[in-house]
């Protein structure tokens, strides 16, 4: 079984055991991903990347994991092929940011 | 190669070709995950989960993929074993939310 | 003195007394506004607006206040006339969403 | 009339003219504040505070205004006295971060 499928199965069991399917809808899972992304970002608040990595790496791992867990759960609920979605989006990003125009620039695609 | 490793490799190439390593630090990647999580959430703004899934599923797939892509990229930059981090965090979540106390409740662990 | 100016002055003093000016830059204040907005949103996670207002109103007040406090602080740091900025943006929003096109619709302006 | 009340009144009219009261509930307004906070944060993505202020100040003003507009709107909907809520929360923050313990430190209160 692939990694993503393995986590997906474990999450299904985790949710089912707690009778939480009733709370898991697309909107609240999207909210949850956003909340976990903020908890991850909080590890970097007021300090530099270097300081955060040095002092908060364990918290960063936990919060990044929570983002991924909720993302995989939402993918399962909406029956999305996550690997396929990532490859499709990566291809779109390549087209939005052609190498010759985007090279060395942090500019958003609509201002390139 | 595992799915997560395969995406990680493709992202490395994508970033390198555009000479974007200079912009990719932990703090800005954490910001980026949060911004993409908001774009995902925007697909659900003002409407129900059912309406969002019916009308915005393609956008949801793309934005969820962007969250995952940046999360995998941050994991690569900080040399985090993502599958291991997810399994570790899932175990912590099981302990924070014991079945007998959490069953059927949406209450946060510190108020259980 | 206007309300916004009064809060601005109190925040200046609060920050100065704690020698926190060194941490207050635009980027970290923008991060902070986003983090507080997430804490506000967390009051609504998994539940309906009605349930949230009934059970979490005190927390909602506190988190909404934190969003406003950081927003006023960022405005002060960047020397932005907040009332003017709000009136200007409200006017732009009126033009982005003309009554005849937007009436009764939750559609984003670029899809109207 | 105070500044906040003046904006509140203008927002009521803006929403009413567009028949948008049907969409304005606490949860979706909290989502909206979070989305606007992300658009503000996007002005600082990949760059320093100084670069952002130099190149994106007009966008920063607009997005900060949108955060404030939605915050005032949510306050109106939930009948919150915003100035009172800010003064109350500022007092709580003073107690969470006593000068002698917090001076010169960016540490979160629960780790002080």
Automatic annotation (TrEMBL), chains A, B, C, D:
Q: Cite a single GO BP annotation.
A: nucleoside triphosphate catabolic process
MF term (GO), any: nucleoside triphosphate diphosphatase activity
Question: What organism does the record attribute this protein to?
Answer: Haloplasma contractile SSD-17B
Q: Which PANTHER family match?
A: DCTP PYROPHOSPHATASE 1
Q: What is this protein called?
A: Nucleotide pyrophosphohydrolase protein
Q: Which CDD domains match?
A: NTP-PPase_RS21-C6_like (cd11537)
Q: Give the Pfam families listed for this entry.
A: MazG-like
Q: Could you tell me which SUPFAM superfamilies the record lists for this protein?
A: all-alpha NTP pyrophosphatases
Which residue windows are coiled coil? none
Source organism's superkingdom?
Bacteria
